[in-house]
Amino acid sequence: MVNSQSKKSLAILSNTLMVKLKSSEEIKIMQAGGEILAQVLRDLAEVTKPGITTNALDRLARELIAKHPGATPSFLGYTPGGARGNKFPAALCVSVNDEIIHGLPSERVVKNGDLVSLDLGVYYQGYHTDSALTVAVGQVNQSAQKLLDVTRESLAIGIVEAVPGKTLGDIGHAIQNYVEEFGFSVIKDFAGHGIGKGIHEPPTVLNFGRPGEGEILKPGMVIAIEPMVVAGKITTMQKADGWTYATTDGSLAAHFEHTVAVIESGALILTE
Ligand code: MG
Ligand code: MG
């Protein structure tokens, strides 16, 4: 995730100047890292059950990544504000219910009916991959389940657009259009991003937009597409822990993300 609001004009400029296209060898390395990430995330989702703390999920994320020689967590020690910022002290972001992203693990206990978003990055052989999913814990109510399902599907619909000749606006538009059909809204304060040697590279991948607008997608672009969707207002606030972002109206949020390579033949999901 990157902040899409503060540096939008810079991002538009850097989109054209700085997108680093990846070779097929680089994409293969990222796919190997992405497979590790996908497996760890699946294992974490399975144990996201009533009674577990979000700290325990973070500890497990570190242990599971450490089982793969050469793999390390991308987010541990990451400074979103650049070198002067505070370092993120966990491997895993765990965002519960009204929390959208950057959830800081704590002694909070996961409960029946919670929506728990797990966001994880893995660094492997010089490259990052990034993926997220939302887990319905035990029995969640129907509207929470619908929010989860629509967010997951909106990611799939966005990925369909991630092919050569389409644009970033096509991706954003497809996601937004689908989400709004169900009366939900996409968060605009944060966005997806390019990814490779850096966890966050140009371009910024917005979850809204107009068809045909924005940068044209080319083979070798690797992007993290990550719709963040809410049931209520799209305004966000940072919580007192200094990391976690939540909705201002307390409404529920869901988040799904894949790292996707644009290749000649279409979109290749690297984190599944
Ligand atoms: Mg991301
Ligand atoms: Mg992520």
Low-pLDDT stretches are none
Number of helices: 5
Structural class: alpha+beta
Strand content: 25-35%
In CATH, what is the homologous superfamily?
A: Creatinase/methionine aminopeptidase superfamily
Q: What is the CATH topology assignment?
A: Creatine Amidinohydrolase
CATH C-level: Alpha Beta
Shape: globular
SSE pattern, N- to C-terminal: EHHHEEEEEHHEEEEEEEEEE
Terminus-to-terminus distance: 19 Å
| Helix fraction bin | 25-40%
User: Are any ligands bound, and if so which?
Assistant: magnesium ion
What features would you describe in this structure?
The chain is of the alpha+beta class and 272 residues long. It has a single domain (4-269), classed as Creatinase/methionine aminopeptidase superfamily (Creatine Amidinohydrolase). The strands form 4 sheets. Strands 1, 8, 9, 10, 15 and 16 form a 6-stranded antiparallel beta sheet that branches. Strands 2, 3, 5 and 6 form a 4-stranded antiparallel beta sheet that branches. Strands 4-13-12 form a 3-stranded antiparallel beta sheet, with no helix packed on it. The relative contact order is 0.19. It starts with a strand and ends with a strand. The model has no long low-confidence stretch (mean pLDDT 94). Helix 2 (24-47) crosses helix 3 (54-66) and helix 4 (142-160) packs antiparallel against helix 5 (168-181). It has helices at 8-18, 24-47, 54-66, 142-160, 168-181, and strands at 2-3, 71-73, 92-96, 99-101, 115-124, 127-136, 185-186, 190-194, 201-205, 222-225, 228-230, 236-238, 245-247, 253-255, 258-263, 266-269. Bound molecules: magnesium ion (MG) (2 copies). One magnesium ion (MG) binds at residues 1, 119, 121, 130, 132, 226, 257.
